[in-house]
């Protein structure tokens, strides 16, 4: 699995959270897929 595969299943807000690299970041993800 590569990063494109992971990002393909995310909504726009999730993609922004995963790819951000500036400022503080808090991710709450209770429904993570099982790999």
Helix content: 40-55%
Our Rg estimate from Cα atoms comes to: 10 Å
Order of H and E elements: HH
Total DSSP E strands: 0
Structural class: mainly alpha
Number of helices: 2
Strand content: under 5%
How confident is the prediction overall: mean pLDDT?
Answer: 81
Question: Uncertain segments of ≥5 residues (pLDDT<50)?
Answer: none
Based on Cα principal axes, name the global outline: globular
Span of the ends, CA to CA: 9 Å
Largest sheet: none
Can you offer a commentary on this structure?
With 35 residues, this protein is an all-alpha fold. The protein has two helices and no strands. The N and C termini lie close together (9 Å). The mean pLDDT is 81.
Summarize the structure in short.
This protein is mainly α and 35 residues long.
List the SSEs and their pairings:
Blueprint: H1 3-8, H2 12-19
What are its keywords?
40% helix; 35 residues; mainly alpha; 2 helices; globular
